Amino acid sequence: MSINEKELLRSAARLVDDGLMAFAALDSALVARWRYGALAQWIPLEQPICSATPAFIGLETDLLAMQDDAKTTFALPKIGLSALKGQADKISMEVFWRSCDETYLLVISRLGAPMELEFELTKQIRARRIAEDNYRLAKEQMIEKQQLIDLVIDHAPAAIAMFDREKRYIFATRRWSEDFGLGREPLLGRSYKDIPPFAHAPHLALLDECLSGAIAATGVAPIEVADGRREWARFDHQPWRRTDGGIGGAIAFGELLTETVENRRELENRNADLVRANEELEGFASIIAHDLSAPLRAIQYALDEAKKSPRDAGDHTSRALAHARRMETMLSDLLDYCRVGGQRASFAEIDLVGLVGEIVTSLPGADRFDIRVCGAPQVIRAAIAPLDLALRNLLDNAIKHHDCGHGVITISVVNCADVWEITVADDGPGIDPAQHDAVFKLFQKTAASRETPGSGVGLAIVKKTIEAQGGAILLVSNPGAQRGSAFCISLPKSQQSDATLHDQEKLGFVHIL
Prior knowledge:
Largest sheet: 7 strands, antiparallel
Number of domains: 3
Mean pLDDT: 71
Number of strands: 20
CATH superfamily of the largest domain: Histidine kinase-like ATPase, C-terminal domain
Strand content: 25-35%
CATH architecture of the largest domain: 2-Layer Sandwich
C-alpha cells in the first residue's frame, strides 16, 4: 500500500472515530461496519432507529437494514472492490445512520472517498447539540423562574390579584383567597364579576375606572366575602401596561380592616362613654351643689330653730326628719340612675298584657284608672328589664299627676322594621312643650307636679335606660290644643352591637384618584 493510501486510510479512520463520538451523544443512531464486502458489525447507539437481521452478518450484501415493520428497506450502493484489487482484505467501511430533524442522513466512509459529508454531519450534530443544550437550559431557567413566581404568589403576605382587560383572573395570592373566602378553588381565567364580593356594582365600577387608566381606591367599606362572612376592607386598583404602552388589565390590592374598624369603634365608644361620664359628673356636681344642699340647709335651719325654741323643738325636729328622708330618697334615686347602663339587658318573649297587669297591681291608685293594652302583636321579643322599668315609671307618673284622680291610660305597640314602638298615653293635664326637655333631667319637676310625691328622677332613669339599649323616648304633649301626654318608646328587636354605631357613610366608600 502506498504512503498516500495509508495516510488516506488513517484520515478516514480519524473521521470515522470523530463521527462515532458525535453519534454516541445523540438520542438515536447506529453504526454498521463492513469488511471484505460483507456486513461485519451492527451497533445501535442509544435508541436504534432500525435493525438488522443477524443472518446478514458475514454475508456480502448491499442490504444495510430493514425496519422491524418490514415496510422499508435501506440499500447500500455497490462497493467497487475491483478498484482495489489485492487490497480487499484491508478494506473496511463504516456507515452512520442518524435521524436529524426528522430527516434521515446516510453517511458512508470508505477507502478513497472524500470525507466532506462526515465533516458536515459532525458540524450539524454539534450545532444541534448546542442548540438543544441552550433550549434545555432556557427551559430549566423558565421553569425555575415560574416556580419562584409561584412561591412568591403563594406566600406573599398581602392580598393581591391581577386581571386582564376582560376582568379575568391572571393570578391571585393565597392571602387574597383566604381573606376573601375563596378557598383554594382555581381562579385563573375566571371572571372578577362572577366571584363575591367583587360582583357588586361599586367594585366593578372601580375596575372600569382602573381599566380606563385611573388609580381607583375604596374607602373602608363593608363587604360580604364568598364564604358568607361580613368584613370591613379597602381596595386599591392600579392599571398595568403592556410593552406597547397599552393597558393590559388591572392589579388589585386588598386589605381586611375588620379588626382595625372594631378597635376604632371601641375607642370611639370609650371616648363617648368618657364624655357622657364627664357630663354626668358635672351634672352630679350641680345636683350636689344645689338639689342635695337644699334639704341639708333645711335640716340645719330646723335644728337651729329647735335649739332657739325648745318649746317648738318637736315640730322643728319633725321637719328636719322629713327633709332627711327626702334627701335619703334623692340619694337612693341618684344611685339607681348611676347603675343604669352598666350591662346589656337580656332579651325574652314578653306578654304585654301580663306585664302591665303585674305592674298595675303594685301601683297605688291604679284601680281608679282604665288601663288598656291595644295594638298587635301583644307578645313581643325585647329587653325585658328596660321595658318593665319604663312602663312602671310612665304608668306611675300618669296616675300620680292626673288632675282628676281617675282616667284612661292606653298602652299601644307598633311593629316597625327593626324596633318596637310602644306608646303610653293618658288623658291628664299634659305637659307644657317648653318643659319637654327638662322633665328628662335629674330632679326636675314641672310646676304642676311639685306638690306630688317623688324626687323627679323617674323620667331621667327611663330615658337613660332606654338609650343604653339603643332605643329612644319621645314626649308628645300640647295642653293648649289637647289634654293628655304620650310617651313614645322605641326598643330594638334584637341585641344591639357596638358595630352598628357607625355606618358606611361615616367611614366612606369610593374615592377615585
